[in-house]
Design goal:
Blueprint: H1 3-27, H2 31-51, H3 59-66, H4 72-89, H5 93-98, H6 100-126, H7 130-139, H8 146-154, H9 159-189, H10 196-200, H11 203-225, H12 232-253, H13 258-276, H14 279-306, H15 308-311, H16 317-347, H17 356-364, H18 370-381, H19 387-418, H20 426-454, H21 458-481, H22 487-511, H23 517-550, H24 554-566, H25 570-605, H26 607-634, H27 638-664, H28 670-688, H29 699-704, H30 714-723, E1 725-729, E2 734-736, E3 744-750, E4 753-757, E5 760-764, E6 769-770, H31 772-777, E7 783-787, E8 791-797, H32 798-807, H33 809-821, H34 827-839
Amino acid sequence: MDVVYVTAIIASLFLLLGLAEPLAARLRLPYSVILAGIGVVIATGAAFFLRTELTDALNPVASAILNLPIRSNVFLYVFLPTLLFQVTLGMNLRRMADDWVPILTLAVVAVIFSTFVVGMALNWVSGFGLVACLLLGAIVSTTDPSAVVSIFRSIAAPRRLARIIEGESLMNDAAAIALFGLLMGFVMRGVPDPELAGALRQFPWLIFGGAAVGIIMARIAVWSMSFFDRFETAQISASVALPYLAYIAAEQLFGASGVIAVVAAGLMVNVSAPGALAPGAWENMRDTWGLLAHWAGALIFVLAALLIPRLLEDVTWVDFGLTLVVVVAALAARAGILFVLLPLLSLLKLSPQVDPPYRAAILWGGLRGAVTLALALAVTESLRVPPETRRMVGVLATGYTLFTLVVQGSTLRLVISRLGLDRLSALDAALARQVVAVALQEVRERVAETTENYDLSHDIVRSEAKIFGERLDGSVKSAEKSEAIADRDRITLGLVALASAERDLVLERFRERAVSSRLRDRILTDVDRMIEAARVGGRTGYRQAARRAVGLNRSFQIAVGLYNRLRLSWPLARLTADRFEILLLQGLVLRDLDGFIDRRIRRIHGRRVADLLHELLARRAELIEQALDGLRLQYPGYAEELERRFIRRTALRIERQEYDALLEDGLIGVELHTDLTHRLARRQAQEEKRPALDIALQKAEIARQFPLFSELDEPTVRRLSKALVTRYASEGDLILSRDRVPDTVYFIASGAVELKTAGVSHRLGRGELFGQLAMLTRNARRTEVRAIAPSTLLALDERRFRRLLRRSDAVQQAVRESAEKRGIEVPYLDELAERADKAA
């Protein structure tokens, strides 16, 4: 094949890709449907010109198109790793983890169920072998949700719903291709159907072996990237190589699933790369992968569509009937998952509620595309598969794909419209009219200011002002006539707007390098939770999500457990340093949000709503300040160091902006600007490294701040700090149980605990102690102690506590006051007092 023709074809394909997107928007059709149509038209046209006698001028081009080296390996080894890897890089894994039940249900469970239903239905109708029918079922179970996701975004569907569909996209392909690989090998070996159960035992290795390969290779890749952090293009190049090497290694060296390896590698890079790379490098890497995936996704659709005429060359009426069976079975299987299993999971509180209209849209929007055609092509190319199976898979998979693209794809927007998903609710419509009125008032003020500054003609200004005034009056009257919006709804809308503004501020701080990429994703996850909680639960939901953002997450609790039980400190130190940085950033963002309420929300929703939002922000700020105070007490000076680092990074950012402005104004040359920015980059790289936090060296500082230890001399404090054992408790943790005589005394460094004895409760806070009375009286008082806030405790064993008690009058007095408050006699204290009198 002439390289000139191939080059011209590839260039023409990219041109068509550029034209397809605006064409899809104009025709209001899914982008994938337009791409598939382009591929079919090109292939059909090439076959026509090659066979017609009208002209021979286009024969070389037509021959080049029909003879393009399109094989299944091209799709599976070139395009598929790109698509899967890019999806994993763009995922918010923390938010996906919140919805792991519906994602796995729609992906793994639905794939297996759909494979079984389609395979059994086709086997019952056609007479083909069960394994061959199951193979076809696995092929047609891979969905392309890009169409329904893009439409959901255009109609402002809930983010959570779009996220579930995106998660399904990734896991669905991985599960279906892994199952396809298992069944394909089974068909090629020609083992009788009853042996299928034995072959399924290989499935775990395909999954877990592929995951292990991907994780290990991703860890090596990220570790390598961290060594050349000044060479961004080198880091991006290494990331491009990773998915292909992982795919080949898993498939060829270990006999595992290459798809699972790519997915695992992408997830690992998503987790570890933001902390290892500079924020700019991470963002540029994701942008690069976004472009690569856009090209790969479009090309795979067009090239796969070129194969459709070839796969349907000898289609018969019987094939049409079997295709209809596949269509009905696949839709029925997916409907069973969406309308039976998902509602059941929602009732069990294992999955978020998905409204029936959205489930119907997901059902009809489950288009099939390039991956289905690529897998079908792999079957048709294998000479080890029986000829009748090759033909059946090629024709039915292609026919079903065409049905989803032509019938479902072309009617998807109509279905969404009939379901009412593209219409504003009554509340949103009423709010829209008010927003327009408020916005036009703001526009009028700013236009008046602009015309005055530019001294425009008064006649022209008066004429345009009259036209604009009529429009404004109409908007105000429309807003006044609309249904009144209840205060509760205004509060919900205001909270959603407030949380959205917070999200924008976090992204702005990230661009200013005030927060790292790894922490940015975590903070954005918390903000997204507040947005969704406000939509569903209003003020209560927002408040709960805000408290969760300040509280200790599960990772922190696991790190606390590792430290308390195994004395493993580095996970807790890292997460504590993260907590410091997150709380400081949240405090800065909240200060900016007060201004947003006054500038924007007050004008739309009124003073009452604005005052309430100010109150909610004040409570959040109080929670954050309390958490920071506890951390400052535990780790004196660390918060100050982080604040200094923030100031230095801000100064470097402003300095960079000043150099750019001087260059733009022509006050410095390119050579000087390059030298200055290189020096600045080195300083910025130094400031990217967060100061280390050593939690094991803070006990002496904490002990010095306890009033109980104030009278002790320095050597005694040092010995005491070595004896003290730090223990962390999350809110609700049980510290002391009933019917157990304590052998340890706890000093509260930060937080609060609640003691319950015989139906009476006492609350203790920072600087107080507990466990000493039961120890000294040797009496199990059926006392239970729980943390009522995230707390840091210093534990001292009985022998050392008694020694401390003998030496410290302040500790004796604290124990005595605690005993008197609770009506408990402690003879040991009287003995100590008698000894002191005799000694005196």
